[in-house]
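dumping this here before i forget
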Amino acid sequence: MSASPVVSNASPLISLDRIHQLALLQQVFGTITVPPAVVRETAARLTLPAWIVEQPLNQPLAPVILGASLGAGESETLALALEVRAAWVVLDDRPARRLAQALGLPVMGTLGVLLVAKRRGLLSVIRPSLDALVQTGFYVAPPLYDQVLQSAGEKP
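structure:
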């Protein structure tokens, strides 16, 4: 999608892995960069493939990130995305998404990854993946569920 780095938080990695669609991230973006906190958060749940690369932070967390009451993974993800001037930051947590947007970072969530994958022909339909996410405990508000299906050309 872009030559610039794509930085991901743990939630999209874990969620996509649970529905056996983690490879979509590589197919959509190529290499994914993650900070050390994300490696720690995912370690118990999945083994990161070689195309997910850990990159330590070069700078301390900015005060605007420290003051945001985010978890370590979200905080380091935002800090790393700023440092590397990420093409995308992949986040699901609403407060982290809002801060990322306020910081001028382009944001995509797990559902956005599924939509891009569908548009590129990597998924023939999105509904089974969406339903699988919901079955694993991934919260999708009913209006958003319908909106995603509509965006994918699959009537709700």
